[in-house]
């Protein structure tokens, strides 16, 4: 039994892309039994076709149009990263009425609102569970689980690479450069770690979380960002003696902005990313290594907290797959309505 077949095109087939393929391979039976859908990754866009990958029968291409122009592909999954050309590809996919899933936080922080508006206009889905906190299913929890509540404050460790480096500095007494090098050797930091260590990666995720939690937009350039590069081993050792550990904390809350008169008051967001020295009483001080942690203070439920793998091809691939499943449900319903109308 195959049920309904939903074809997927991947833009990018690296860590996360291969995680998606693996997730489908592992869970296709469960998905078929629950939804009556067979998910098929038919093509994947890559730069270098000769690279070794575990992708079964997926056809690799270097031509984006092979995927974007394929009428059988209904779901485009962007896991290539970067602002361009991903932005152009996703705009084109949405304009063509395809559903889109992405894990690209930079793209979403910069262009998420515009892309979401195109998706709404075209009646398609743009989903991005993998873009924030990797394997922790936080966006759907905010959208559905907290639909009856209101988040007042966001506070979290949103970047696993810097958390690993800081944990190494505390636990092994290493200096910043040495801890960074170790993170690179262990595969937790990229060869160019700029986005992580400057705090930009965490800031992108904070922008997305603000959109979801507050339904307000904060431009990325308005987030106050300070990374971990200036930290010294001596400073960390001294604070450790006083019972405090450094954490790269991203936090945001809504404030009422007053301009010239009370009638001009409107809501805005204060958002920042920077190193904070936390004592053992702070819940975030116990989020160590590559883990991420998020605390949301809500009006009705009070403080809620999540901790878990914030990155990794399989964990993030699973989050991306949860979006694909969500879309597949919609596609199947639309097909059955279409069949009934014929
Ligand atoms: N890795 C994680 O743990 C994680 C977690 C959360 C979110 N994300 C996000 O997920 C996305 C993918 O991350 P990743 O770790 O999977 O990256 P990656 O391993 O570097 O994979 C990127 C893939 O995209 C392809 N690609 C890049 N630029 C391309 C271009 N211009 N044309 C055609 N193909 C191109 C690469 O092709 P080649 O293989 O031929 O080089 C590669 O297959 C990023 O937006 C990242 O921020 C990653």
UniProtKB/TrEMBL annotation:
Q: Which residues does the record give as NADPH binding sites?
A: 105
What Gene Ontology molecular-function terms does this entry list?
homoserine dehydrogenase activity; NADP binding
Active site: which residues? 205
Q: What is its EC number?
A: 1.1.1.3
Among the record's GO biological process terms, what is one? threonine biosynthetic process
The uppermost taxa in this organism's lineage are:
Bacteria, Bacillati, Bacillota, Clostridia, Eubacteriales
List the Pfam families hit by this protein, alphabetically.
Homoserine_dh, NAD_binding_3
Q: Which family does it belong to?
A: Belongs to the homoserine dehydrogenase family.
Which catalytic reaction applies to this protein? Answer: L-homoserine + NADP(+) = L-aspartate 4-semialdehyde + NADPH + H(+)
UniProtKB keywords? Amino-acid biosynthesis, Methionine biosynthesis, NADP, Oxidoreductase, Sodium, Threonine biosynthesis
Where L-homoserine is bound, by residue? 190
Name of this protein? Homoserine dehydrogenase
- Gene3D superfamilies associated with the record: Dihydrodipicolinate Reductase, domain 2 (3.30.360.10), NAD(P)-binding Rossmann-like Domain (3.40.50.720)
Q: Which PROSITE patterns match?
A: HOMOSER_DHGENASE
Identify the InterPro entries for this entry: Asp/hSer_DH_NAD-bd, HDH_cat, HDH_CS, HDH_short, NAD(P)-bd_dom_sf
Q: Pathway of this protein?
A: Amino-acid biosynthesis; L-threonine biosynthesis; L-threonine from L-aspartate: step 3/5; Amino-acid biosynthesis; L-methionine biosynthesis via de novo pathway; L-homoserine from L-aspartate: step 3/3
> NCBIfam families per the record?
PRK06349.1
